[in-house]
Amino acid sequence: MADSVSVQTAGHVAVVEMHRPPNNFFDETLLCELAGVVLALDDEPDVRSVVLCSEGKHFCAGAQLNGMTAEDIRRVYRQAFRLFAARRPVVAAVQGAAIGGGLGLALAADFRVATPESRFAANFARLGFHQGFGLSVTLPALVGRQRALELLLTGRDVSGSEALQIGLCDRLTLSDPREAALTLAAEIARSAPLSIVSIRATMRRALVADVGAALDAEAEAQAALLATADFREGIEAARTRRAPVFTGA
Predict the structure, then answer these.
(1) Which of 104, 114, 175, 222 has the smallest CB count inside 10 Å?
(2) Architecture of domain 1-176+193-249
(3) What is the Cα–Cα distance from 92 to 195, expressed in whole angstroms?
(4) Can you state the angle between helices 135-143 and 145-154, rounded to 10 degrees?
(5) What residues are paired with 119 via a beta bridge?
(6) E strands in 22-154
(7) Is 248 helix (H, G, I), strand (E, B) or coil?
């Protein structure tokens, strides 16, 4: 048990849970703990698949941006890349919202299970920011380049029902997404363990390499926008729950 992350096993499935309710905002510390737990499961021969879930109202409402510096961003993304480097297939159980970096975390998994009320958003442009967490690669890989561009430029919300239609999630449930995620992870775990690892490595080889390069480019783009008036306006508007007024400065 780490401070913010726990792991339990049920049969051949490991359940990794984040504990920063209600919104599960992440920072370097949380991602370091999370990556360490997930990577350690690669050395557990009885674990064949992983469910990633969180305590609270939302799966993950994004990064803790207040006071973040350019070097903070780079350190956060070094931990994010460790998640992509893990070898076991991961099913994310998305209750509530997966927003901004939280969407990036959800898309780092191989599969996502949601409810019709779940909410996905790449809201970076609505904060005066640039997308991160590898979304430059993972989002178009799932929904196509044109749809990804629309979601990134508008920052609009996508419901769980729409997410299933466009490929952002893989299964929809009317009940607890954690239970449905466990069902899918158990289905995967019934396959031959060496085959699971080998197939996943082949299918994700290009994605992991591309994400590594994208994280560097995203960090540079985000760092360049940290000092802008529009970024300050976007953060303040989000804090006070009002529409932002951007000036291009």
Answers:
(1) 175
(2) Alpha-Beta Complex (3.90)
(3) 21
(4) 120
(5) 97, 159
(6) 49-54, 90-94, 97-99, 111-114, 119-121
(7) coil
Say if residues 150 and 162 touch (Cβ distance below 8 Å).
no
Q: Which of 198, 153, 188, 209 lies closest to 49 in space, CA to CA?
A: 188
Q: 0.85 cut: is pTM over it?
A: yes
Q: What is the C-alpha to C-alpha distance for residues 89 and 101, in angstroms, rounded to an integer?
A: 20
Print pLDDT tens along the chain (249 aa): 458 999 999 999 999 999 999 999 999 999 999 999 999 999 999 999 999 999 999 999 999 888 889 999 999 999 999 999 999 999 999 999 999 999 999 999 999 999 999 999 999 999 999 999 999 999 999 999 999 999 999 999 999 999 999 999 999 999 999 999 999 999 999 999 999 999 999 999 999 999 999 999 999 999 999 999 999 999 999 999 999 999 999
| Residue 126, both tokens | 């609505």
Number of Cβ within 10 Å of residue 222's Cβ equals 23
Cα 12 vs. chain centroid, distance in angstroms? 23
Q: Which residue is associated with the tokens 């049920």? A: 10
